[in-house]
Amino acid sequence: MPVTSQLLPGVKVFTPHQVANSLRFNDGSSDYLVRTPSSSGNRQTFTISFWYKRTTPGTSGSFIRADNGSGIDGGIRISTDSIQFFDYNSSYKTNLVTTQLLRDVSAWYHIVCVADTTNSTSGDRALIYLNGTRITDFSSETYPTQNLNFSSINDSSFAQNIGRSQNFATYLDGYLAEFCFIDGQALTPTSFGEFDSITNIWKPKDVSGLTFGTNGFYLDFENSSSLGADVSGNGNNFTVNNLTSVDQSTDTCTNNFATLNPLNGNNYAGLTFSEGNLKVTTTAGQYAPAQSTIGFNTGKWYAEFKATDVDNWTMVGIVGQNATATSQPVGYFSDGYGYIGGSSAGGSNSKMNNNSASSYASTYADGDIISVAVDCDNNKLYFGLNGTWLNSGNPESGSSGTGAAFTISSSPTSGFYHFAVGNWSGSQTPDWEANFGSPPYAISSGNSDAEGFGNFEYAVPSGYFALCSKNLAEYG
After folding, report:
1. Is the pLDDT of residue 344 over 60?
2. Mean pLDDT over residues 115-130, rounded?
3. Of 94, 150, 343, 408, whose Cβ has the fewest other Cβ atoms within 10 Å?
């Protein structure tokens, strides 16, 4: 039987080929991979394919780029929100900039760029495909002359960077998976993916049988001690810069994990997102919380949140609707439920619902990990602190709700609950790191759910699951 997964909540997709890992790039850490070929490859004909998950709309960054400050430049980049495939040598020899924008931070995109300057048809000498479909609408559209060599891509005089522009010292934000370079062939997207026969959703295929050519490579990011390892058989390995095993992620194009959502409304200007949208820094007076990209209204869900910088009135929990003002924290609405750390209303430890705080359990401090277990089947919410469930809570107690922090509404206003973290102080700026199963920080123990998904510091309660697309297909 094929394995079922989903790329969107509530949609099952049959994907016999599973992608185990992606690599998480954070531009604030200057993350990149680099390789300089020992000899030039085919600079007229090549194909580049990769999967990409965005984190910061409105910014630019390079997927693959060869530039050295000499005025010669080329590659594929996200240009604000457009895809740009270009070759520059004093002027643009090739320049395709899509009018279609990539702004969905909860989705995985498949991008294929093909160069074939030997083609007799001008408009077929450079191609961009998105999720299996050719893009034909561009804001800038310049094609190479016939038989022209690309100026820097696949040229041994230029370092080939993944995640960096060397000349401009800019870096990529987001996740990359299944990165392939095919030297000497103009392939179509069907070499790398296919449409699901039931849902018509584009999904990845096994690419290990492809012929990659002399300078070709296939980066699957599965070796945590050698993240730039080429598994094509060519041994065209990349040097790793500022990336560690923590940046190896299980959030992939066949199992999409929740992250924090920077696009959740117009009241989030005070939040700064990083580390693949798994870390958020708040601003004094900015109470509207950061929420998970994926929501839920049935099933049982588990996540962990590391309080990396706790200030007074730091909050974690779930929300059933978006804040409509910066003054509305996690527990502001009747379907918002928060656990407060630091000195707060109700004493040094409290919880909040419907804009009312009350005493609760223990407070938390820098470095503590808060477990959050949401039982939507029995409408209960539990909090744990460093591996111990608070208030003698038992998330496995079902309808009795032993030690639950809250009995939650069965009908959230938006139709879904989202995990949420934030601040409730006019002068403090706490930091949070979210672990929905693919953490941005090192885990010392390592625990997964019953399906084998997730990497958590503490044991996942029986019947609860990491918030990812495969689990949503079965339990959401």
Report:
1. no
2. 98
3. 343
Q: Which among 384, 379, 415, 413 has a CA at the least distance from the CA of 296? A: 415
Tell me: do 46 and 169 sit in the same domain. yes
Per the structure, the complete domain to which residue 57 belongs is given by 4-249
- Pair 152, 66: CB distance under 8 Å: yes
Q: Are residues 257 and 438 in contact, defined by beta-carbon separation less than 8 angstroms?
A: yes
> What is the amino acid identity at position 218?
Y
102/144 same-domain check: yes
Q: What is the pLDDT of residue 14?
A: 52
Q: Is the pLDDT of residue 262 over 50?
A: yes
Strands, E assignment, 40-137: 45-53, 61-67, 72-79, 82-89, 91-98, 108-116, 126-130, 133-134
Q: Largest Cα–Cα distance of the chain, in whole Å?
A: 76
What percent of the chain clears pLDDT 90, i.e. is strictly above it?
84
Do the domain assignments include residue 255? no
* Burial (0-12, 13-18, 19+ Cβ within 10 Å), 392: exposed
For residues 160 and 13, state if they share a domain. Answer: yes
Question: Is the same domain home to 319 and 417?
Answer: yes
pLDDT at 15: 54
Distance CA 282, CA 238 (A): 36
The answer for residues whose C-beta is within 8 angstroms of residue 200's C-beta and 6 or more apart is none
Tell me the CA distances in angstroms from 262 to 57, 78, 282, 434, 436, one per residue in order.
9, 18, 12, 14, 16
List the structure tokens of 349: 């430890």
Decide: 383 and 372 in contact? Cβ < 8 Å: yes
Three-class SS state of 238: coil
Residue 385, beta-bridge partner list:
370, 388
- Name 359's bridge partners: 350
425 and 342 assigned to the same domain:
yes
Tell me, yes or no, whether 194 and 80 share the same domain. Answer: yes
- Average pLDDT of every residue of the chain: 93
Task: Return all residues near 392 (Cβ < 8 A) that are at least 6 apart.
Answer: 402, 403
User: 23 and 167 share a domain?
Assistant: yes
Q: What are phi and psi of 51, to 5 degrees?
A: -105, 145
User: What single string gives the DSSP state of each residue in 288-303?
Assistant: SPEEESS-BSSSEEEE
- Report the SS3 class of residue 190: helix
List pLDDT tens digits, range 215-241.
Answer: 999 999 999 999 999 999 999 999 999
- pLDDT tens readout for residues 53-76: 999 999 999 999 999 878 899 999
Token digits for 2?
A: 């094929």
Q: Do residues 42 and 146 share a domain? A: yes
- Whole-number Å distance between alpha carbons of 196 and 200: 5
Query: Is the pTM higher than 0.85?
Result: yes
Q: Is the pLDDT of residue 1 over 60?
A: no
Collapse the DSSP code of 191 into the 3-class scheme (helix H, G, I; strand E, B; otherwise coil) and give the result. Answer: helix
